[in-house]
Amino acid sequence: MHIVLNNALAATQAYRGAAQIALSQRLAANPIDSEQRAAHGFAWVATTVAALEATLDWYEAGRDSNPLDAKIATLAFAESIGQLTGGLPMGQNEIFRPADLGLGAAARVLAKACTDLLDVDHATARAEVAAALAEGHWPSEALHDADLDAIRDQYRRFTDAAIIPYAHGWHLANALIPDATVQAMADLGTFGVCIPEQYGGLGLGKLVMCIVTEELSRGWIGTGSLGTRSEIAGELIAQGGTEAQKAEWLPKIASGEILPTAVFTEPDVGSNLGSLQTRARRESDHWIIDGAKNWITHAARSDLMTLLARTVPDAKGYAGLSMLLVPKPRGTETDPFPADGMTGSEIEVLGYRGMREYALQFEGLTAPADALLGGEEGQGFKQLMRTFEGARIQTAARAVGVARRALELGLDYALTRRQFGKAIVHFPRVSDKLAMSLVDFVMARELSYAAARAKDSGKRCDIEAGMAKLLGARAAWSNADAALQIHGGNGYALEYEISRVLCDARILNIFEGAAEIQAQVIARGLTGGRN
């Protein structure tokens, strides 16, 4: 199987190269926006091949240590190549086909090179994978590093004991993550994973961040996402702050004493941050902020806002944006926004609860004179862009955790639900869903780890981060949808946890850059496409 998979990978890499050439030729004559379908289809092709590369690396790193791994890798390659040559889903009703980019001949070459995988009925392999799951066997997850494996074990035990038993109740009550749980997460070092040791953090890399986020999100996406607030703020300040700002804020963020929130997006702005309208002006010994922000997570209970505002009104687009570190009093249930000059209203949402979403209004909110990140105006967008890679890798890790929890719930239900005299796990349409959910989970997990390793190596990895988020979000949604289908009508009942997981999974394809934005970033980055 080792030889078969390596040959298949080489064939998919050649197909990706043909797709890149075909798209580059189109973009030489046309703007990328007029070729979105072709460009985004290529992005999905490139992402699929990258996932196969990561999956093969995973398989070879532990080859022969777990017999389940070979079956997972084989199914991953067979299904992915089938999609590459036949139709690759970009969305529920958007299928990218080879002919969309003039790749019919290249697809036939790929199919011919991979007949050992495509001209096989893999029903037996899927059944064996599902049977192994039913017996409690999972594919390898060791990271071949005792410290990393210990961190995963620590956070898995914490999640099993402190989050999973309570998360659904918190969700149904639209409750904030309890203070005791936040403190317990802080005690584990959750909020300082990537903050340098000299400022009270653990000084670890993005791969560790992935492991921590994945395990917490397996319990509840809210707890997994809470660390994102500190990750973004910590990276902004560590990379762009003055020494005084680092000394003031980073130790408090790392310890959990300060809970930050990201205040970037505005009504009707979406991904076009260059059109932000919130203003901040300097007056003697303070800043005055006016404007509106939307979809601000954890705004009430936070203590510090990293706020993107226009401080140079005459500068167009991104050039006039600056990042401000704006302290605020922590709100309560009865008075969520006690700061003068700041009001807010909750946005009720389907899922992704535990921190709550808000629309905020600023009318004369003041911030200290030293609030300007780095002490330099007009750098806000650049400072924010430097955090996008880490944020998207962490979002991919959240998706991986959600994907695993969906699979766990589908499996548990299939083992206990009996119809026609036997557990439904024994029906092929159920076991197939479980097997392929496991395949999707492994591929998404390994791609997120690959992106994290790229980031830890110090290289620019916006493409790798975009790919990890793109695939992870799809895996989370498809796994949740499959698990709910396994539950049947019960899955639609609020009392069942899978109803929450489905709602939580849906947001992953939207925030931190929607799937379409990720595909655009990937395609432009790999081809240098025109705007």
Protein model, in words:
The chain is α+β, with helices and mostly antiparallel strands and 531 residues long. The chain folds into 3 domains: 2-120, Butyryl-CoA Dehydrogenase, subunit A, domain 3, CATH 1.20.140; 148-258 and 381-513, Butyryl-CoA Dehydrogenase, subunit A, domain 3 (Up-down Bundle), CATH 1.20.140; 260-378, Butyryl-CoA Dehydrogenase, subunit A, domain 2. The protein is built from 17 helices and 11 strands. It has a 4-stranded antiparallel β-sheet, with no helix packed on it. A 3-stranded mixed β-sheet has the order 3-6-7. Helix 13 (380-416) runs antiparallel to helix 14. The mean pLDDT is 95.
**Architecture of the largest domain, according to CATH?**
Up-down Bundle
Mean pLDDT: 95
The CATH homologous superfamily of the largest domain corresponds to Butyryl-CoA Dehydrogenase, subunit A, domain 3
- Estimated helix fraction: 55-70%
Q: Oligomeric state of the chains?
A: single chain
> Rg from C-alpha positions?
23 Å
Q: What's the CATH C level of the largest domain?
A: Mainly Alpha
Q: What's the CATH topology label of the largest domain?
A: Butyryl-CoA Dehydrogenase, subunit A, domain 3
List segments where confidence is low: pLDDT < 50 over at least 5 consecutive residues. none
Shape: globular
**How far apart, in Å, are the first and last alpha carbons?**
43 Å
Number of helices: 17
- Please count the beta strands (DSSP E, at least 2 residues each): 11
Strand neighbour order, sheet with most strands: 4-5-9-8
Which sequence of SSEs, written as H and E, runs from N to C? HHHEEHHHHHHHHHEEEEEEEHEEHHHH
Q: What fraction strand?
A: 5-15%
Q: How many structurally independent domains?
A: 3
Structural class: alpha+beta
Please outline the major beta sheet. 4 strands, antiparallel
